[in-house]
Amino acid sequence: MSAVAEVLYSQAEFRRFAASGEEFLYLVPSGGIFGVSPAVRDALDLLEAGPVAAEDLLAGLVAKGYSLADADGIVTELFQARVIRDQTGYADPPQEAVEDFPLQSLVLNLTNQCNLSCQYCYEYGEDKVATPEGKPKFMDETVARASVDHLFASAQGRRAVHITFFGGETLMNFPLLKWVVEYGKSKARETGQYLDFSLTTNGTLLSEPVIEFLAKNDIGVTVSMDGAKEAHDALRVFANGKGSYDIVAPKVKALIARHKSRPIAARVTMTQQVTNVKEIFHHLRHELGFAEVGFAPVTAAPDRLYTIQTKKMDSVLDQFRELAYEYRDYAVQGKAHGFSNVSDTLAELHAGINKSHPCGAGLGLVGVGPSGDIAPCHRFVDSDEHALGNVLEGGMDKWKQKEFLAKGHIGAKYDCHSCWARPLCAGGCHHEAFVRYGDTGHPNLHFCDWIRDWTGICLEIYGDIAVQNPAFLDAFEKRKALQ
Amino acid sequence: MKHLKAVNKKARRIEEYVASAYGDIYGQQERGGAKPAPRPHYPIGCSVVFSPGWEVDSAGGTAGLCQPAERDLYDCYITCYWPAQVPDHYNNYPDWTSKCASATKDWRDIDLVFP
User: Are A72 and A221 part of one and the same domain?
Assistant: First the structure.
């Protein structure tokens, strides 16, 4: 019994990238981002072709001119930060979902009715998951009160909680919205927690008194718009087929002129017909005056006419890249650009987030529909199949919640286990997965290449900003601090 | 860290962890035993010690071994990384072999330990 076990070092999981003349490592799965010295580059180069015995690695570094002590220091440091590993690997499985995770955000679907008939709508379109038959169309005070109570009862220990109003068209139930704001504030005074509100709207009902109320109560507003008239009117139409741009645009301008306490955001749904990202961004940001503009592809079965085909997604990526570089140039000068897809990703990269689940759905966030049914998020509201309990009848069903979270956990998504982008992506949207694959826990494989390319672009920009204007990144820490 | 420069928040945490858990014995005890940061693995114990002739001698017995078979006891509790079923002499049973001056002769005097 006595042969010496040979120690082999190999590269652990990371992505190397260069920005502004410096080299960086994005470590997976920790999410750490390190700038690296030439010595690290030399060591990693030696491991490029595969595992190398410990003494050969040291000898290789000595041959490159490092002293033995320096070489040992380099190897030790890389090993401790888990840039390299030996053949024993690491037994660090992803964390299990926490049993009692305090709720942070409540999305109230005030109504499932809408005054528009957008073809691609996930609530009414061809791929809807909602089963609203026989359920109330408008939420009432009883359900709203129970929902807010549920939020506060489940958010113990949180410093800040959020309520988001959603629909249908949210503002079709404006009286209840006002009531919830008052009731929520009184609850927050009791518990001493910080509460803030936001809503998503199609903008058609933004009258002067509504705008006044939103501004006075510091309610964050996101307006669903798809760009300038032609793009917007392609699918965002009234029941008679008439486009809604001419109604929405002036109201949005009035909103932006009056409501200054929160950045007003636009949310664009990209479809096969609407992918001119740069043009849409510049219209919404500079002509209408939104502070932020975010884009997401429509969620739909692959064969719908409006589903974006792969080639189009490639062109979207090219445009995203150009806009992202523009964002970087702004950031280097300390200016806000407003392309929120970049700022969201940079915020996550800066924190070094490493997700067990793609989002907070069913974990820190739930949606509640007019019937009081609790859904993992607003996209599953009113769906019997996905209900996780009811606020009027005992609240969250912990078993169903557990089952939902177990399915969506990164540990259950084998396709993701070798992907370097998994700390941020974690497999992608549960709802997208359900529409595409009939399973909320299925990785969104149709977006993999796209997500990796996009994450790569954001890493590069992150590196540029870290070198040229690191103070800009501190703002992301403040933004997150309130939670 | 000399060669890696922490850029994001997570990297700063990794850096702090490695710094706090490495070489600060007092600090580790104070914090209720933070794990020391791993160093590269250099194998120790019986896997690197060439100690021939443990199991059987050339005739298939134990009489002609280079070392007495009882030497095994010590190999398992001092030099070996393997958690063998012998008492730990660092913390709880420092004296369990104190009556055993020579393993070959006195091995019967090794204490029994009932944890």
Answer: no
Most confident of A202-211, A295-304, A410-419, B103-112: A202-211
Residues A461 and B69: their CA atoms lie apart, in Å, by 65
Give me the residue label for tokens 């909103």: A255
The answer to whether residues A226 and A268 touch, using CB atoms and an 8 Å cutoff, is: yes
pLDDT value, residue A127: 83
User: Where in the sequence of chain B do the CATH 4.10.940 domains occur?
Assistant: 40-110
Domain that holds residue A68: 8-85
Q: Is the ipTM of this complex over 0.90?
A: no
Would an 8 Å CB–CB cutoff place B114 in contact with chain A?
no
- The whole model's pTM is what? 0.82
pLDDT at B11 over 60: yes
Instruction: Write down the CATH number for the domain with range B40-110.
Output: 4.10.940
A300 lies in the same domain as A200: yes
Could B38 and A79 be called an inter-chain contact, meaning their C-beta atoms sit closer than 8 Å? yes
- In whole angstroms, what is the distance from residue A29 CA to residue A420 CA? 8
Which residue among B3, B37, B49 sits closest to A37, beta carbon to beta carbon?
B3
A→B interface, C-beta within 8 Å: 1-5, 7, 9, 24-25, 27, 30-37, 39-40, 54, 73-83, 86, 88, 349-354, 462-463, 466, 473, 477
Token output for A250: 């002036």
What is the number of CB-based contacts under 8 A between chain A and chain B?
111
In angstroms, the separation between the Cα of residue A467 and the nearest Cα of chain B is 9
Q: Which amino acid is at A223?
A: V
| Structure tokens, A45 | 């180069």
Higher-scoring residue by pLDDT: A214, B40: A214
Flag the least confident range among A85-89, A251-255, A438-442. A85-89
The alpha carbon of residue A358 and the mean position of all alpha carbons in its chain are separated, in whole angstroms, by 8
Q: Is B72 a catalytic residue?
A: yes
Whether residue B68 has pLDDT greater than 60: yes
Question: Do residues A387 and A369 lie in contact, with contact meaning Cβ atoms separated by under 8 Å?
Answer: no
